[in-house]
Amino acid sequence: MASDPWEQLNAEIVACTACPRLVQWRQKVAQEKRRAFQDWEYWGRPVPGFGDRQARLVIIGLAPAAHGANRTGRMFTGNGSGDTLTCALHRAGFANQPISRHRDDGLQLHDAFLTALARCAPPGNKPTRNEMDNCQGYLVRELALLASTRVVLTLGQVAFDRYQRLLQQQGATLPRLTFHHKACYRLEPPLPALVASYHPSRQNTQTGRLTEEMLDEVFAQIRRLLDET
After folding, report:
1. Mean pLDDT, all residues of the chain
2. Are 69 and 121 in contact (CB under 8 A)?
3. pLDDT for res 229
4. Neighbour count for residue 75 (Cβ, 10 Å)
5. pLDDT of residue 1
6. How far apart, in Å, are the Cα atoms of 96 and each of 41, 85, 89, 173, 225?
7. In sequence order, which ranges of the chain are alpha helices (DSSP H)?
8. Domain 5-228 is classified in which CATH homologous superfamily?
9. What are the pLDDT digits (tens) for 179-198?
C-alpha cells in the first residue's frame, strides 16, 4: 500500500539536509538556546507546513524563526510573528484560538494552511536564493496536494516575488504584478487569487508599518474573495 503523500512529504522535509549553512545554524541555535527557553527541547530541524489540508486559503511566509518555529516545530508558532498572525486568523474565523505557543497547544486552523519558502531557520532571517531554490520543490508539492486552494496570501515581498516565479516556471502567463500591502490579483483560472501583505514581523508591527487593523483588512479582503467562489 502506498504511503500517505502528506506523511511522505513531511517526513522528507524534516529529514532534509540540502543546505549546509542552514543545517549548521539551526542546530547551533537548538543547542545554545535563548535564556528564556533553556528548559525547552528545541525542534532544530526543517519545519513542515501546518493547517487544514482542505484549505481554500494558503499563506506563504519566508522561513522559520530561530526561536519560534525552529524551537517549537510548527510554522508561525512561539514568536511575535506567530502571535500577530494567529490573533488575526482567529479574529477572521480561520483559527479556533488566538494563541500559538507550541505544537500541542490545541490550535486548529479552519480553511487555512501555513507554509514558507524556506523550511530551516536562516541566520539573520535571510535565506539565500539557492537555499530557497532547494526548498521550492517542497512548496510545489504542498500546493499540488492543497487541491482546494482559492486564495494565496504572500507575507512580504520576497514571498510575493518567489511565488510569482514559481507560477511562471510552471508555465503560467501572468500580468504585471506589483507588491504592495493589500495588493489583490484575480489570476486567470485555475490559478488562485493572489493577495499580498507586509510580513507580521516585529520589525513591521513595532514600527507601525503593519497594524492590527491593516492585517484585519487583508483577511476581510480574503473573506470576500472566498465568498465569490
Report:
1. 97
2. yes
3. 74
4. 25
5. 43
6. 26, 13, 9, 37, 21
7. 5-15, 20-32, 69-72, 80-91, 129-145, 157-169, 202-205, 212-228
8. Uracil-DNA glycosylase-like domain (3.40.470.10)
9. 999 999 999 999 999 999 99
CA 133 to CA 191: how far, in whole Å? Answer: 22
Nearest CA to 179 among 205, 193, 159?
A: 159
- Phi, psi angles (nearest 5°) of residue 99: -120, 135
Nearest in space to 120 (alpha carbons), one of 202, 225, 19: 19
Spatial neighbors of 203 by CB under 8 A, at least 6 apart, are 209
3-class SS at 113?
Answer: strand
* Length reported for the chain: 229
Nearest-angstrom CA–CA distance, 229 and 225: 7
Grid cell digits, residue 132: 530557497
CB atoms within 10 A of CB 153: 26
Could you tell me the residue ranges of all domains in the chain? 5-228
- The structure's pTM equals 0.97
Of 34, 22, 56, the C-alpha closest to 134 is 22
State the residue for C-alpha cell 486548529: 108
Return d(Cα 80, Cα 100) in angstroms, integer. Answer: 10
- Distance in angstroms between the alpha carbons of the first and the last residue of the chain: 35
Retrieve residue 112's grid coordinates: 487555512
All residue ranges of the chain with pLDDT < 50 are 1
pLDDT at 188: 94
CA atoms within 13 A on the CB side of 50: 25
- Cα–Cα distance for residue pair 139/136, rounded to 1 Å: 5
